[in-house]
Amino acid sequence: MVMLMKQRRKLRRVDVERAPRLGVIRPTSLGFRITVRLHDGQTPEDYGRVLDKLSHAWKVHSVRLVSWKPGKVTLVATLTDPLESVTIPVLSDGLLRVRVGLLDTGDPFTVDFRTVPHWLNVGATQSGKSNLANDLVVGLAPQPVALVGFDLKGGVEFTPYEARMSALATERAECADLLADLVGIIKDRMALCRRHRVKNIWHPRLPEVERPTPIVVLVDEVAELFLMADKKKEQDEVSAVATRLLRVAQLGRAFGIYLVVCGQRVGSDLGPGVTALRAQLTGRICHMVNDEETAKMALGDMDPGALVAARKISPAMPGTAVVIGSEGRWHRMRSVHVTEEQAEAAAATHAHLTPAWADLTAGTTTTGDLDLGDLEEFTAPDLEDLPV
Ligand SMILES: Nc1ncnc2c1ncn2[C@@H]1O[C@H](COP(=O)(O)OP(=O)(O)OP(=O)(O)O)[C@@H](O)[C@H]1O
Ligand SMILES: [Mg+2]
Questions:
Q1: Which of 83, 88, 104, 130, when mutated, tests ligand 1's pocket best, judged by the most ligand atoms within 8 Å of its CB?
Q2: pLDDT truncated to tens, each residue of the chain (388 aa)?
Q3: Is the CB of 87 under 6 A from ligand 1?
Q4: How far apart are CA 221 and CA 151, in angstroms?
Q5: How far does Cα 158 stand from its chain's mean position?
Q6: Nearest CA to ligand 1 atom 8
Q7: Nearest CA to ligand 1 atom 4
């Protein structure tokens, strides 16, 4: 109690233009929460702008503005960084849900493909992108899902997990073929959904025996897919890859195909295909980056605080990222550390669950092309169609 009163006196000394009118300090597991009554003319943004100053003045790790009501804001202070050591394990948390890390609020961070189907995972070299992919391999390996790897780093990233992968492409030409297969699978699933008059494969009206296997596609070093080539043949390859990948992103959600796209750069200098793809990848994970531009590409025009937080990630804490998930708010997150050996062991243990690519593609006509009319019918599956 005495400590809280001392803290209260200290908080009062902070100058936010005028001395803040503080409510009761309520202790939380990681620090404290306090409501502040706004002075006439003040807005929550006035507090939003000075959170960094408040954290220094109050000598705490961070202060966040968590909510506001007319005339009041609620601030949450965290005394030390909960991300310094992340000790929770990866958790396979239901179909297509994997707990991959911890948020700086102390809450778990879960990648839930059914809520946010496609993810962009960016960061400088050694920032923790592959570690996050390892988390997903460990979490998805025991689930009834197919994993597909696009490993444009010559196969060094995903080959160790090949036992649990239904398909692995290590060169751009192979990626183009695999993407044509995926578009073929989409066409097939579209026909299935049409037959049953449903908008997506999760609809309860679709008989359980006919429900297709979900497919999670992991792409490492997306820039390699788009790098423009001089030769006509290579240019055609880039354009086929770009078109098919975009189709998969646009339609994947409805037909159980999900993307995790990792890369150091996702700038528009890689071509218009990348910009269109980025717009479809609504889940964002921005690890430490070397330039503001990449952070902007990853976090879009979020609250400028998200960009500041991304620029402040220390190389001493790999695996730390700024994330944007389903509710559109940003958080600092650190992934669970999973070594390549651990992910490889998980892939080997669950190798018997790997669906054969031939079974997934059976009956499909792999033209790699779709009519635009097909697209429109299925791009916006009703959320209420998703079983709870
Ligand atoms: N969450 C984490 N906790 C602790 N260490 C981590 C974490 N994430 C990554 N690391 C360590 O940081 C190093 C780099 O991680 P990682 O290989 O995932 O980076 P990357 O972004 O994929 O790099 P590159 O672009 O070179 O492939 C690894 O040695 C890994 O052990
Ligand atoms: Mg990597």
A1: 130
A2: 566 666 666 565 554 556 778 889 999 988 999 999 999 889 999 998 898 899 999 999 989 898 899 999 999 999 999 999 999 999 999 999 999 999 988 899 999 999 999 999 999 999 999 999 999 999 999 999 999 999 999 889 999 999 999 999 999 999 999 999 999 999 999 999 999 999 999 999 999 999 999 999 999 999 999 887 778 888 888 999 999 999 999 999 999 999 999 999 888 788 878 889 999 999 999 999 988 888 998 998 667 778 888 998 999 999 999 998 777 788 999 999 999 999 999 999 999 999 999 999 986 654 545 554 444 444 444 333 433 2
A3: no
A4: 7
A5: 19
A6: 319
A7: 337
| Residue 155: count of CB within 10 angstroms of its CB | 16
Q: For the chain, what is the domain count?
A: 2
Instruction: Determine the structural domain holding residue 41 and report its residue range.
Output: 2-78
CATH at residue 196: 3.40.50.300
Rg of the chain, C-alpha, whole Å: 23
Residue 385 belongs to a domain: no
308 contacts 295 by C-beta, under 8 angstroms: no
Q: Is residue 387 part of a domain?
A: no
Domain final position from 78, 111, 137: 78
Determine the atom of ligand 1 nearest the C-alpha atom of 127: 21
Instruction: Tally the C-alpha atoms within 13 A of residue 16's C-alpha that lie toward its C-beta.
Output: 28
Inside any domain, residue 169:
yes
- Which domain-ending residue is among 51, 78, 105? 78
For ligand 1, atom 24: residue with the closest CA: 125
Same domain, yes or no: 63 and 124: no
Ligand 1 binding pocket includes 335 (Cβ within 6 Å): yes
Say whether both 235 and 274 belong to one domain.
yes
Same domain, 220 and 330: yes
The residue behind tokens 């055609």 is 236
